[in-house]
Amino acid sequence: MQTLTWSETWYLAPEIVLAAFTLVLAIADLVLPGRINRDLIGWGAVLGLLTAGVFVGWHIHDLGVWDSAGRDPYYNLLDGSYRVDDFGNLLKLVFLGAAALIVLASLGTLKKEEIPIKGEFYYLVLPAVLGAMVMASSGDLITLFVGMELLSITSYVLVGIRKSSGLSGEAAFKYVVTGGTASAFVLYGMSFLYGVTGSTRLFDIGQALQSGAVGDYKAMVYAAFFLIIVGFALKLALAPFHAWAPDVYQGAPTPVTSFLGVVAKGAAFAMLYRIFMNSALFAVSDNAQVRDDLYLALAVLAAAAMIVGTVGALRQQNVKRLLALSGVANAGILLIPLTLDVTNLHSSLFSEFFYYLLAYVFMNVGAFAVLTAVSRESGSEELSAFAGLYHRAPWTAGAMTVLVCSLAGLPVTGGFFGKLFILFGAVQNKVIWLAAILLATTVTSYYVYFKFIRQMYMRGGESEKQVRVPPAVGFVIWLSALASVALGVLPKPILEWVNDLFSVTKDFLAP
Amino acid sequence: MDIVFSQYAWFAPLFPLAAFAVLTAMGRGLRTTGAWVATIASLLSFVLSLLIAIERLGDSAEDYTGRIEWLRAGSIVLHAGYEVTNLTALMLIIVTLVALLVNIYSLGYMKDDERISVFFGYVALFTASMLGLVLADNLLTLYICWELVGVCSFLLIGFWFRKPEARAAAKKAFIVTRIGDLGLLIAILLLYWNMPNHELDFTSFYNVFHSQSGLISTSLTTLIALLIFLGAVGKSGQFPLHVWLPDAMEGPTPISALIHAATMVAAGVYLVVRTFDIFAASDAALTTVAVVGAFTAIFAASVGLAQNDIKRILAYSTVSQLGYMMLALGAGSTTAGMFHLFTHAFFKALLFLAAGSVIHAVHTQDIREMGGLGRRMKITAWTFGIGALALSGIPPFAGFWSKDAVLAAALDDSPWLFAVGLAAAFFTALYMARLFFLVFMGKARGDARAYAHAKESPLVMTLPLLVLAVFSVAAGFVETPWNEWLGSWLTDGEEKGSFSSMVVISSIGASLLGLYLGWLFYGRTSAGRNPVAERLPWLTRLLERKYYVDELYELAFVRPLAKLGRGLSRFDEAVVDGAVRLVGSSVQAAGKLNTRLQSGQVQAYALYGVLGAVILILAIAGRRFW
User: Fold this and answer.
1) Quick one: which of A42, A284, B216, B616 could link to A122 by a disulfide (CB 3.0–4.6 Å)?
2) From chain B, which residues contact A within 8 Å (Cβ)?
């Protein structure tokens, strides 16, 4: 058993930074007198997230140098149970950036009467992101599970942090129950996997499955993977495992909703990729059937999520519930690249996924930030709160229009190209039925998203009061809107950059 | 002689296009300024065209072609380009001169219209498209401009869109010409498939068809030529697609002069001249052109005899004269056709503008309510008279020489065509005499007060009349029996005009007879009597109703098509929309179901999950163990 050496802690720098910031901010929150504004803790959390992001960037640079020097661009820690590679680093950057934007957007908008313990809210985001980062970097089932639980348990607390609100408590309860169920499913599946292959290391599991373990224990392998799939379907809120999402999203404070939709979902995808790309690629001829069935199951879940999410959102009047169901549909879309046959040299799958994830992060964080600003003024989270926004806050309405276009997948936004690339991938791999469902649900979703446009531009609001947007929130809204446009105007460079960094063989299939 | 200005020929359409952009961008605030912008732009185009024409007067002036690659899709390359030849130089002069004069005239005529800058914008766009059509070096570019002038024509006919007649006329013009355009489009596609290297430029047509190389079979050549001719029939108002042109007179009168007399309607003739190599390779096509042209000439001229609207008479006259041009082309003489196009542009524009001046003064278009205006409007009456004499073919006015050339070419081809042309010339003189005498001579028959207020139009309107009158007198001398300059310049000496004293004498005789009878019927007895109508009421009625062509079309095409349309629309509403509504409502119903399932009970959620998992596992993994 390999142990961690001092010099290797450098590879854990981002994680260590986050842990340190968490401790420091927690202690600060305890010792600082009550009259000091807890926004200070919030700024500290943003600083911590950005510092960790700098270290991740540093790692990406280092790995790039290794790559050009001929050395494999990844590093294994602790016997390969923790990996520093481009796949993990890219996703970590997304998690850190998204979390920083979410905290930024909540600065100055949280109401004291709703969340009396603002400091805790701010510093609890850090361990949650740490859990997400562990999920993105693990090479071992145990580490993966630990990361997932770290993220989940912190999220339960965050969802229930509006202690005085019954809705928040109900949401936290439901989230604990479903989250616990999901963890149980995943863990049960993992135990089968360990039983069949005798290892918890993803690489070893992959090797064992490759070399014929499947043939002897076919039913066990099916059970293992299907239990894991169901567990993640619960986590990702794929239909028909999505029913908790609208309730939880509605009950949670808006920044937490945004965090659940973006970081928690992204982390679950990271873990799904780790497990499936490493272990479920066994290509021995008589086992190909099992593998195909697993990917087919994922494809069916993706299709169901797209349909149910879009159709369910049609009649929603509550913005958070609507965005929750939109998140269900988007999770289905994000799942598509993984379901396509990797063995068919569909090597751009990760860049397709990553590009849409990036677009999805910006449009969601931006839309939730707008919702924060709007509901802060009117006290309502219904669609009607957006009525006449064009007259009350024309600039914010303009940014929201861009974000809505990105959500709907209209050119020239990131959402459009994200969906386009995924669509191309599906068509290239001749999975026409999935592409058709993607197209049909996208068209249907126009109806959903244009409810925003209709409210903002064509309905008069009850009050003509100007909506005051705090500067930090305005910054997040505009950064998201501009990023959505930038992704739409310059899709090529980003796609190529990701394609350059990422490689299936080095990031997943290497020991 | 060095080619200087021809290289910059593409500037000619650019000036009015820029004016159009400025007028559209600036909007209605400009008013008179906008009108002047458009006028100056057309002046610049005219000056450039003049310089190009002067440059080309030299004997050795070479054709100049400029082209750019426009589209590339795989191995398919499409070009856009322009070509300056003697023919295009002549057309440039005609178009820019008439456009300039019409612009100046409109400064006065449209002065009080609230949408004056829109009007000038449309005219500028039309001028640009027409110049593009003239300059195009290949059929595709020509087709694009061809459609653009059609759009401008549509917009300008319906310019006073509050009048239901104007709206109906614009629609009719658009739909009827579209029938012809479809023919042209099919011809272009056929050429694209069959020409070597998919070339569509006129030089390649010359190379392929002129040499009779056999690359394209005779029957296909005939088909292509007839389809091109269908386009020309639509645009130039030839029988049986002539019905839109008289209705198009609902547009402002300067537009009737520019688009529906001098330039756009002549585009059909120009198209046949431009692609004449294709026609020349097929006798059947040429015969068709000649017969259709001759028939249209006499048919429209006879209808013109019984109309009472001053502009409609001139419109039928235009149809008839365009028939003459087609007759000349069908008889094989591009020189005669182009020559008549050239002179006709001037005297017909003159007649329309003078008619506009009359309408401007008395605010009616019905010639039965006019009379005696000659004393009130001297310049208008004199210039109109010159135009009428030119149209009737009285020497030495321009129309005489060109009509003579057409008739001579017809006689070369067939004595029957010549006889029809001669009869049409007689009718032409007759209806022009009727028009002139009823409008300008005799006593005022209409509203006495309107007559008392009638006065000569302002200088901006009479100046173009005078300029055009000069051309109506002088333009004929570019091609006379003793000086075949135009023919040799246009065709590089390939075509020789034929002179026959019989043609000259008989055509003068027919014209004089027409004028004399006109004077006898309408000039001498200035009372409201109509001697022909009294003696042959059925004939007059037939002519007044324009041979019932419109009614026939209404019965044979419009009503059945409208019925079919209503049926299809019902199908659309019931079946197609019904299907759409079904999809929409079922999606909405699914949404409702979804909301209902969302009970808030976390136990129920878990149940959905378990059910989903069981179904998923049984359906996908379970089938392997059965």
Assistant:
1) A42
2) 587-588, 590-592, 594-595, 597-598, 600, 602, 604-606, 608-609, 611-613, 616-617, 620-621, 624-625
The answer to whether residue A372 is domain-embedded is yes
Q: For residue A313, which residues of chain B lie inside 8 Å, CB to CB?
A: 591
H helices within B85-214, ranges in order?
86-109, 116-135, 139-157, 164-194, 202-205
Is A1 within a domain? no
- Cα–Cα distance for residue pair B240/B596, rounded to 1 Å: 66
Distances (CA, A) of B52 to A349, B41, B45, B89, B136: 62, 17, 11, 7, 16
Answer yes or no: is A2 within a domain.
no
Contacts of A364 (CB under 8 A, 6+ apart): A258, A261, A262, A323, A327
pLDDT tens figures, B427-454:
899 888 888 888 887 777 767 776 777 7
Closest alpha carbon within chain A to B592? A315
* B280-303 residues labelled b (16+ CB within 10 A) or e (exposed): bbbeebbebbbbbbbbbbbbbbbb
Residue contact B598–A246, C-beta within 8 A: yes
| Residues B12, B49 contacting (CB under 8 angstroms) | yes
Domain of residue A415 covers: 10-507
- 8 Å CB contact of B602 and A239: no
Contact present, B602 and A244 (Cβ < 8 Å): yes
What pLDDT score was predicted for residue B61? 66
pLDDT in tens, B494-520: 666 666 788 888 888 888 888 888 888
| Helix segments in A379-490, DSSP class H | 389-392, 394-408, 414-428, 432-453, 471-489
- The Cα–Cα gap between B326 and B280 comes to 14
Residue B337 has pLDDT above 80, yes or no: yes
Phi and psi angles of residue B69, each rounded to the nearest 5 degrees, phi first: -75, 130
Residues of chain B above pLDDT 90, percent: 10
Q: How many domains does chain A have?
A: 1
Cβ within 8 Å, pair B602-A181: no
User: In the 8-state DSSP scheme, what is residue B250?
Assistant: G
A241: in domain = yes
Q: Which amino acid is at B473?
A: V
User: What is the C-alpha separation between B472 and B344, in angstroms, rounded?
Assistant: 8
Cα angle value A123/A124/A125 (rounded, 5°): 90
| The dihedral sign for the CA sequence B217, B220, B226, B230 | negative
User: Beta B64-73 vs A82-85: how paired, if at all?
Assistant: unpaired
ipTM, 2 dp: 0.81
Among A226, A301, A311, beta carbon nearest to B621: A226
Contact assignment for A312 to B604 by CB distance below 8 Å: no
pLDDT band at A126 (very low <50, low <70, confident <90, very high): very high
Contact call for A312 and B600, based on CB within 8 A: no
pTM, two decimal places: 0.59
